[in-house]
Amino acid sequence: MGSIRLIDKVMMVSPSIRIATVCTMNGKIIHTARRKVIKNRLSPSESRRALASAVKAWKVRNATSRKIGKGKYVIAEYEKVKRITMPVGRNLLYVTTSPNADHNRIIRRLRQLKA
Q1: Domain spans of the chain?
Q2: Which residue, 37, 41, 33, is CA-closest to 13?
Q3: What is 3-114's CATH superfamily?
Q4: If you count Cβ atoms within 10 Å of the first and of the last residue's Cβ in the chain, which end, N or C, has fewer?
Q5: What span, in angstroms and rounded, lies between the C-alpha atoms of 65 and 32?
Q6: 0.85 exceeded by the pTM?
Q7: pLDDT in tens, 44-85
Q8: What is the pLDDT of residue 64?
């Protein structure tokens, strides 16, 4: 499935999804989408740093994957947003949601999309 189609499907998973991005393992953005009704909480440079941080953390996790298995997803919960990161092929899917989102349901549906 292409990145644009994937992002379109991701955005349909839940109205709680604020932003969805597919990026390379080097942090290069392939495609991103944002709900028009939401206000960006981070500036563009802060958003790039947050994405770079998630990519770096994923690489650190991959370093131990031979011993503990491949990572399936990571969720970071903040007061104002939740951030979900998961592999999709050789890239990463980076999704932010509202804080009250049912992240278990969203993750389950995201994993079905990329299967």
Answers
A1: 3-114
A2: 33
A3: Dynein light chain 2a, cytoplasmic (3.30.450.30)
A4: C
A5: 27
A6: yes
A7: 899 999 999 999 999 999 899 999 999 999 999 999 999 999
A8: 92
Alpha helices in 3-102 (DSSP H): 3-13, 44-62, 65-68
From residue 3, alpha-carbon distances to 14, 36, 86 in Å are 18, 19, 14
> pLDDT for 2-39, tens place per residue?
888 999 999 999 999 999 999 999 999 999 999 998 88
SS3 for 103?
Answer: helix
Strand 91-97: give its sheet, edge to edge.
Answer: 29-34, 17-23, 91-97, 82-88, 74-77
Q: Are strands 82-88 and 17-23 parallel, antiparallel or unpaired?
A: unpaired
Sort 57 into a burial class: Cβ within 10 Å, 0-12 / 13-18 / 19+.
middle
